[in-house]
Amino acid sequence: MSASNINPESKGMTRRQFTRKLAITGTAVAGALAGGIALWEPKHFLPGFEEKTGLSLPNYATESRKYLSDLAIAKGSEREHTIRAAIDALGGIQRFIKKNDRVMIKPNVAFDRPAALGATTHPDSLRALAKLCLEAGAKQVIIADNPINSPVGCFLKSGLEAVVHELDLKLIYPESSAFSNIQMEGEVLKHWPLFHRPLKNIDKVIGLAPCKDHNLCHASMTMKNWYGLLGGRRNQFHQHIHSIISDFALMIKPTFVVLDGFSVLMKNGPTGGRLSDVREMNTIIAGTDMVAVDSYGFTKLLERDIDLLQYVHKAHERKLGNMNWKDLKLKEVQA
Amino acid sequence: MPVPHKQSYIRTNISLAEKTIGSILLLLLIGIGVSIQQKGRSYDPNLFSVDETTLESTRNPVLNKASTLKEENAPASGETVTTYLEEDYSAFEDSYSEPAVIDTGESVFEKMDTFSGFKAMSDTEYYSADTLYEKINGRAPAYLGFNFQKLTCRTFTIKGVPGQYLDAFIFEMDTPVNAFGIFSMEREAGAKPLDFVNDGYRSEMGFFFRQGNAYIQVIASDVSEQVLAAAEEFSRITAAKIQINDTGVEAASILPMDQIIEGSISYIQENAYGLALLNDVFEARYEIKGLELSFFAMKTDPSSAQEALESVQQFFQDYGTVIENEPINGCQIVIGESFGQYSVVYLKNDELGGVMNADDLPTALAFIETFLKKPKP
After folding, report:
1. Chain B interface mutation, best of A14, A145, A150, A242, highest count of B Cβ atoms under 10 Å
2. Which one of B2, B7, B141 has the shortest CB-CB distance to A6?
3. What number of CA atoms fall less than 13 Å from residue B119's CA on the CB side?
4. Where are the alpha helices (DSSP H) in B121-270?
5. Chain B residues 244-263 within an 8 A CB cutoff of chain A
6. Distances from the Cα of A84 to the Cα of A283, B42, B197, angstroms
7. pLDDT at B256
8. Mean pLDDT of A111-125
9. pTM for the predicted model, two decimal places
10. Dihedrals φ, ψ of B215, to 5°?
């Protein structure tokens, strides 16, 4: 046979040749498809499927000390002295605040009410706590809250703005750009705008809350105080009020909290409006476990059955704190 | 002739155009693949984000509401605000003139920027049932339970008293009865009644009263006499601007005033004492020889009143004991005992009332006898 018998230009191809080429082409197409599927990430192209990210807050708590109390109850006749006595009973401010620490104090300034009505953190309490932090060598003390009412009106009418000016503290108002999304696995709170600017580069966080009645959840104390860090349409959480309050114990681990029970809003909370709604209890509670602090405040200051306070039970069951305040290293003092 | 061995089909004559097109297609495919891969590595949220300009109309759903975001004219963080309360009153002009009485449908604050001796410190804020929580937060459900309609509020500085102010709130309900209801629910026991309204009292730090279907609160910034005097003046002016309307509240006038515990009058909208037919009930407490009694009254049509009385009797038949008694002064009487407490209920035409849950039957019965036999003005 000679090479001239091979005719490479012959018309058409044999069945075998066609099958072979089809198989090769098919394999190439299938491979391309498989590669495309592997590279394709549906969460990047379908709304609602994108992975939600957000910040999480660092743990601001200090180490527990074996011989120091974790819960202090101070009674006195003068607010500043009583707060100092409560902090001293925990081991002194130096236990918590170090020189050059940047400290954020979170008061409850939800409403534009005068201080005497017990609906907001009292200016004397803020003054006492801020002075303690400054005496301990804090580099800066920041005050911030995202109130229900107008922020300017709230800080002004509550008297806290004057304290800020008096002690040269830094007051941060909530602005649109001050919020960042938090991401956490709460019962209700998962991905939500948080008033984050005051917390940036902060070393210590202290909660300072009044003790008051609340129409929906029976009480507003140190745990509910953190509601003032939320942005967005947070009112929708009222339908799950106890769940979200217990979520706050997961959201933030403050350095310590102070429950101001000097003037307790006993009824018509959270706004109050009458001095007759306020009872002078002359008590300050300070502690490292806000679940325990709230448990004490509800039973001893508001004088109510702890079974009513669902959020404390939830937080306890989730091991976010101990509602059995008697189990803590407790110290009671008279200022 | 033997069949030559068939070789693979090889097309060797490929034109330049074909080669060019093929190369371009191949490069395109590679390029598309690389682009898809790069695109898939980063997600642009703007692709599916909300166009916020479309939400502009909802940013301020309530006219002049107090926003929780920083106001545009508010100071920057760190600055202090003191100018609000340091008004120079030298240029203040007293432009007050006696206004006509207006319905609560139009807020008094809308009409006047200045009352005599006061000056608005803020814009008027308005809140509806949907947005009330934005002002009073967790307290809102209490008001919504009385068919709250609208809140108008504003802050006023006081002429001649720098640094002090008044917060004034007008909560409008749908009816005078519901306004009375929320007013009485928050009433301060033992507070001094006001002489310029039918329902009102002076608290240590403010004035609280009902006028028409409005529940008004004037809260002072301070307890000094000067500020409270200004608050009272402001309250009088405000009350004068709102039409009197006591429709439905007349039943409260049935309650006897003798030996009443001051500030104890309250309104129960429905299911008073757990009884489904006792609705729109006015109740007060009395101190009789060291014992406290609870007396209620309701006004309805005669057949509904009869039906309600029979339901009371049925309740005691089911859960206690019915004690037989003769009518008093022509009025049907039902006496019941349940769990050691006694109730004496009367029916007089369209009026149903009585003493409920008293510890002592003779005292309760004597109270009702005195009440029914007392000549009405």
Report:
1. A150
2. B7
3. 21
4. 133-136, 140-144, 176-185, 225-241
5. none
6. 12, 53, 47
7. 86
8. 96
9. 0.72
10. -110, 115
